Structure formats: C-alpha cells, structure tokens
Amino acid sequence: MTSHTIRSAHNANKSDWGLFFGGVLVALCGIAVIFWPGATLELLAIVAGVGFLVAGVFNFATWIRTHNYTEGSGWTLANAICDVILGIMFLVHPLVGAGVITFLVGCFAVAYGAFAIASSFSLRRVADIWWIMLLNGIMSILCGWFFIFSPEFFAIFLGVFVVMQGVTMSIYGIAFPNNSIY
C-alpha cells in the first residue's frame, strides 16, 4: 500500500496526539535522568521502567492500529514487547534491575536499535521521514555499547537514550495521522 491509500481524506491532517504526548513524557523521564545522574541506580531503574513501560504501551497501541496494513509492523510489536518487559522488570524489582541495569539496558538498546533500523527500511516505502527511525536505531546501538562498556557514564547515556526515544515518538506523533503507519 502507498501512503496515499493508508491515509483517509478525513484523517489526513490529524496528528496522533497520544503518541506525541507519550513521547513528551518519555523525553521528560530522560531529561530527569540527565539532570540527576548522581541518583541511585534504584531510582534510575524506576525512572527507566516508567519510560520503557510508557513507550511499550504506546508502541503496542500503534501496532494494534496499523498491523493489518503496514508491512514490517511486527518490528513495532517486538519493540513494544521488549519495552513492556523491561519496564515491568525495573518497576517490580528495581534493586535487581539496579544491579544489572547497565548490561541489561545495553543489550536491550542494541536489540531496539536493530528493530528500529529494520523498521526504518519498511517505513522508507511509505514515509519521507523514515530516516529518523534509522538514525534512532543507529544511536540506540551506540548507546547500548556505551551502557555495556562504559557503565560509569550509564546515567548520562540512559538519559540520552530515553530522550531520543521520546523525541522520535513525538515527531512521529505529529508527522503521521492517527491512523497512519508508525
């Protein structure tokens, strides 16, 4: 399907405000992490858990709306599932999460980056701003490697990663109509 067949004339100018505001909330969680890097890892695990849970819920809602007519939407579902699992883990067991957070989030960020890159190629056929998802994927993989190999800077990289996810969600919330392909 082309972008012209995906968007109805009635909804062509309506933005996906749920995705936009979810992205803003995720970005604010990331900013909080950046401004308070000396916070305990337990608090960081809770903040990250909230951010990932919000991202997962909104990505799952997007998948529900788009999976019937978007090629490659399985990547959005896989990302949503990873976000929700990671978010729940950090919220239910923040102390356990704090002990392994740098390695676990690093692995997740690398996997998320791979999902985002694959998804960007599917979006390329239907959206002019597909490159935002590609850039997000590349930056996610880089942040993931830094999480794993430079744990002393974890709070800063986590903040950047979470802000980047929120900004991407917000851009897609504005760029695509409520019934669109993201």
Uncertain residue ranges: 1-11
Shape: globular
Task: Please give the share of residues in helix.
Answer: over 70%
Mean pLDDT, to the nearest integer, reads 79
Would you list the SSEs in sequence order as H and E?
HHHHHHH
The structure class reads mainly alpha
C-alpha termini separation? 14 Å
Largest pleated sheet: none
Strand fraction: under 5%
Question: How many helical stretches?
Answer: 7
Total E-strand runs: 0
Radius of gyration: 16 Å
Set out the fold topology.
Layout: H1 3-6, H2 17-35, H3 41-66, H4 74-92, H5 94-123, H6 130-149, H7 154-175
Helix pairs in contact: 2-3, 2-7, 3-4, 3-5, 3-7, 4-5, 5-6, 6-7
Brief overview, please?
By secondary structure, the protein is mainly alpha-helical. Helix content is 77%, strand content 0%.
Architecture overview:
By secondary structure, this protein is mainly α. It has seven helices and no strands. It has helices at 3-6, 17-35, 41-66, 74-92, 94-123, 130-149, 154-175.
Structure keywords:
182 residues; mainly alpha; 7 helices; 77% helix; globular; disordered N terminus
